[in-house]
Amino acid sequence: MDARNSWGSYPDAQGRFGQFGGRFVAETLMPNILALQQAYEDAKADPTFQANLDVFLRDYVGRPSPLYFAERLSQHFGGAKIYFKRDELNHTGAHKINNCMGQIFLAMRMGKIRIIAETGAGQHGVATATVCARFGLPCVVYMGATDVERQSPNVFRMKLLGAEVRPVDAGTATLKDAMNEALRDWVTHVKDTFYIIGTVAGPHPYPQMVRDFQSVIGRETKEQILEREGRLPDALVACIGGGSNAIGLFHPFLEDEAVKLYGVEAAGHGIETGQHAAALTGGRPGVLHGNRTYLLQNDDGQIIDAHSISAGLDYPGVGPEHAFLKDTGRAIYLSATDDEALDAFQLCARLEGILPALEPSHALARIGEIAKDVGRGGIVVMNICGRGDKDIFTIANALGAKV
Amino acid sequence: MPVARLTNAFARAKAENRAALVAYVMAGDPSLESCAAILDGLPGAGVDVIELGFPFTDPMADGPSIQRAGIRALKKGTTLRKTLALAQAFRVKHPKTALILMGYLNPVETFGYQEFSKEAALAGVDGAIIVDAPPEEDGELRAAMAEQDLALIRLVTPTSDAKRLATLLKGVTGFIYYVSVAGITGDKLIETADIAQAVGQVRLASPLPVAIGFGIKTPEAAANTAKIADGVVVGSALVDVIATAYETGQNGAQAGASFCQSLSRAIMDARLEPIV
Lengths: 403, 276
Description:
- Chain A has two domains: 16-57 and 96-210, Rossmann fold, CATH 3.40.50.1100; 62-93 and 215-399, Rossmann fold.
- Chain A is globular, with a radius of gyration of 19 Å.
- Chain A has helices at 30-44, 47-61, 71-77, 96-109, 123-135, 145-150, 152-160, 175-188, 206-214, 216-229, 244-250, 279-282, 320-328, 338-352, 358-374, 392-399; strands at residues 16-17, 20-24, 67-69, 81-85, 114-119, 139-144, 164-168, 193-196, 235-240, 260-268, 284-288, 290-295, 331-337, 379-383.
- Chain A is α/β, with parallel strands linked by helices.
- Chain B is α/β, with parallel strands linked by helices.
- Chain B has one domain: TIM Barrel (Alpha-Beta Barrel).
- Helix content of chain B is 50%, strand content 14%.
- Chain B has helices at residues 2-15, 32-41, 64-75, 80-93, 105-111, 113-122, 139-147, 162-169, 192-205, 219-226, 236-247, 252-270, and strands spanning 20-26, 49-53, 98-103, 127-130, 151-152, 155-156, 176-179, 210-213, 231-234.
- In chain B, α8 links the parallel β6 and β7.
- In chain B, α6 (113-122) packs parallel to α7 and α11 runs antiparallel to α12 (252-270).
- Chain B is globular.
- Chains A and B meet through β2, α1, α8, β11 and β12 of A and α3, α5 and β6 of B.
- Chain A: It comes from Candidatus Phycosocius spiralis.
- Chain A: Pathway: Amino-acid biosynthesis; L-tryptophan biosynthesis; L-tryptophan from chorismate: step 5/5.
């Protein structure tokens, strides 16, 4: 089968996107994973499920998020028109809640009475704690001890929302270790617990399910740009950690082959230094956290610590569908360093009056080149997947300012 | 020979009316040299099957004891290749004791399934348990290992229902590993009566020996398990005994061997007492 004509048909029944994806978990979890897959398929086929979800996405999350013409930034670069999809305006300040809302509806449908999640920057943890508070379910969030320290405002937000935040000291005490610990919790509480994974990684059906819940970003974008410009954009741009906001933006456009897709990974101190989080650019395929994908790893298959100024991108893997889109050439993956992201952040703040999170600042760092490449008369849409309020202390520190 | 060595280990124990003792040791913990000495002491202490762990940075099904052992091993530069060298050195001295590897898939993927199977067979390894390769994902590796007559052991768990059990038992060789906790390694053991019932289901479905593990920490627990199982697996507890010995300046190899000796005695005596 030619992948090019059937992008929407992935993953296959085994959860594979080509060679990527799959279900690489301990046997104890397999019955749960299979039950989850069944429950998700049932929910998708039930129109009331989507209808209930849509009401909450509208009234609680604040969807649709606006599509905004970034006029001054467009003028600054002198190329294509740049639009921002404003997912940072969602309740809780990022795209993460789109997925959490979908998964908590599924958890309730499955009769689960306890929610667990992992978080890096804390945005997914906050979004999970938020939906748990709204629907009255107990919530445990695993967070690397290093991240607990550098994202303390989000830790406090989660606590205010009634969640229990469990710092994880194991390994490097960052997102990947939080995910290990959440998986261990799940293995130990398989019967009553629902694990809300925050990105398009993990065992099947998570990469598909999270993508579907995040695809609301791309569906809205398509409708909005057609209304505004009467045509599809020439290019879409998004940052990539695990890749959930990017796949959410890209997926409804996969079969529109004329639309170029650009993902921007975190190059940290620079790909050549080895201190980065660019799994697609600087890694190779392997198996971690339930799926086969591109990973930062050494010659023995040991996972290497990622580095990025942005805690949300600080992960040594990437969603398997991105690995597939890279290998098939459907999407192009670039990277931006810590410094480039900081510069782009400041530029956006001054020209557009928007403080983007450090994550989408990486995408912003490449948008000038992409806009010039597309050229005048063209259209580029970038997703601002989170707002930068959470990052002001990190940014102040990096810029040598005192807050 | 490799699968046969496993089968023989269980058959010998059965002929002596006892369960086989399966002992888990992390390769390279606390160092490759010390680990070689630890392994050397196990056959004499009554260990029938050795599970030699190879470390992984992200052991998502392991509790704190084996997580820490893995970190110590990685700090000493332990790799899958060095683990195989350790196995080979052991095999030269101990032709009868069965030895299987236990770990996660990514180091094996990196090695290459074919290459790994060939090298493992050359090193005298008899099989492997790959924790994150369920039946849905282990076909290619299973085929590569079968070509070298290596067993790829599957885990049966308290969450495995009848339908799942059928999937798990398909194509399996060597022995069946029943995980006695719905949790991670070293977790609290579930009720013996529940285990007995579950193991009964496995026996109905397969003629292979059934070993029980995850959560057996003492000679008493080993004895209780030995009454219903063909094999008793002790992992985290042994790892802890060895680690504690090294931390307190004692001989870890000796400590490991004497702990295994106490387990093997308890297992030996278990079936002499009436079942309670």
